[in-house]
Amino acid sequence: MPHRAAIIMPVPVPKPLAARPLLLVVDDEPPVLKVVERLAAKGGFDVVTCTSGAEAMRTLRRKPADLAMVDLRMPDINGLDLLRQIRTSVPGCEVILMTAYGAVDSAVEAIKLGAREYLTKPFDFDRLRRVLSDIRLELERRAQVVALESEVARQLEFCGMLGRSAVMQEVFSLIQRLAPHAKVVLISGETGTGKELAARAFHHVGTRRARPFVTINCSAVVDTLFESELFGHVRGAFTGAIEAKVGVFEAAHGGTLFLDEVGELPLSVQAKLLRALEHGEVQRVGSLQQKRVDVTVVAATNRDLRGEVAAGRFRGDLFYRLNVVEVILPPLRDRREDIPYLTAVFMRDCAARMHKPIHGFTPAAERLLFGARWEGNVRELKNVVERACMLTDGSLVSERELVGAFGPDTPAPPSRARAADVQQRNVESTAPLDEIERAHILEVLRQVSGNRMAAAKVLGISRRALYRRLERHQLSDEAPRPAPRRIS
Ligand SMILES: Nc1ncnc2c1ncn2[C@@H]1O[C@H](COP(=O)(O)OP(=O)(O)OP(=O)(O)O)[C@@H](O)[C@H]1O
Ligand SMILES: [Mg+2]
Question: What's the CA-to-centroid distance between 192 and ligand 2, angstroms?
């Protein structure tokens, strides 16, 4: 199977979402519901309407919406309280607050609580249409991002290993080049970085793929049984040796022997392993006969074997014999660019397996995934995504499900701001501070419909400081401005 490192294949452009996004409108005035329903249905939404906060929450729990438009003043609940409840119990649902009272304070409060927009009634219909269309496009883009990323990841997959980063592509290409020739290989890397996958990849692309792949996990063998496990024993070799036993070396004859966690091997057995590797011969316990074995040995360790050698816990000669070729699997935190691709594939697999219509992450969830420490590396990421998908009822996995999936040690998200656009992920993670500030100011201004005073409040700076920054970033013309009021 030729490896396609560094060649990005053209990917099919995903189709728009099969289902229309769901909008929930909550207002105690039926004419408002009617107007919004008509407009949103034309704009590509399925629409559900409710006349009270209690009914809205019941409906949302039954079927989480992608977007909720909430009236600020209703008889049974204040819109801000309803916004709070929705953000807590359905965090994947965007919220737009509507009010007949254009008070800056409640607009600011709404944005701080996580509202996406703030619309005043009577509606400016052009603006309402634009807001709905922006949100629908964004929902589609989010789903497409995951679909595209998983397509790309799948196309660059190497024997079940995913990784788009340059380091992982280099690892794949190294395995591809070495596998037909190497007789002994050492794979090192932290737990969960894919050492076993890499060992299997070696076997698969080498010349021995039709022959056995035999694994022995050195951390799971009782010290006294090591020799017999590796080399076998003859009947009666020791108490309890009722039958003769074939060791893993012999069992792997012609194929690959995977010595997992080789750093756990007791010193006494290390010398015997070295002899077997040097001479290509093994001796069953209790036998005088040497048997020739032809195996490729792939050893893996998550320990620093050089340090173990220095500390006298691992034989230097065995280390150098194993270390002829070393493949290092970098920890996930050193190749964060792989995270979106891994999560996209894991999410799509889980969604398909669980028959759930999940197709993306909220921006806050993405930041959380991107910024986590991932001490358990890809294994931990896979488990977290799987658990989060189990907890998700709607179409997007939000930070709430991730927090549930991480458990109590959830890392703090790198930024508390709600970036509305998933395209910003790269900007946020790698861009200079200046660019992040510029993008953030633009985003906040967009959220408050260009209202400078409201934006300054959300950003926690004075209005004058905001104007200074707009000038510095040359945003004075580009930044959104409040739409002229329409009387209707
Ligand atoms: N590059 C990758 N692409 C896809 N899945 C991966 C990748 N790396 C690891 N995984 C997945 O993560 C999990 C752990 O992988 P694996 O068992 O190979 O890690 P390991 O390095 O051997 O871990 P340990 O040291 O704990 O034994 C598996 O479910 C594996 O499928
Ligand atoms: Mg392993």
Answer: 7
Per-10-residue mean pLDDT for the chain, 488 residues long?
44 53 95 95 96 95 93 92 91 89 77 89 92 91 88 95 96 96 95 97 94 94 89 89 92 96 92 93 92 96 94 95 95 95 96 92 89 93 95 88 74 40 39 74 79 79 84 80 53
Report whether residue 330 contacts ligand 1, using a CB cutoff of 6 Å: no
Residue nearest to atom 18 of ligand 1 (CA): 194
Provide CB contacts within 8 A for 161, sequence distance 6+. Answer: 168, 171, 172, 194, 197, 198, 201
Predicted TM-score (pTM) above 0.90: no
Dist. CA 198 → ligand 2 center (Å): 10
Give the Cα separation of 368 and 370 in Å (integer): 5
Q: Atom 28 (ligand 1): residue with closest C-alpha?
A: 379
Alpha carbon distance 304, 317 (integer Å): 16
- CA end-to-end span of the chain, whole Å? 67
25 forms bridges with which residues in the sheet? 49, 69
The response to whether residue 262 sits with its C-beta less than 6 Å from ligand 1 reads no
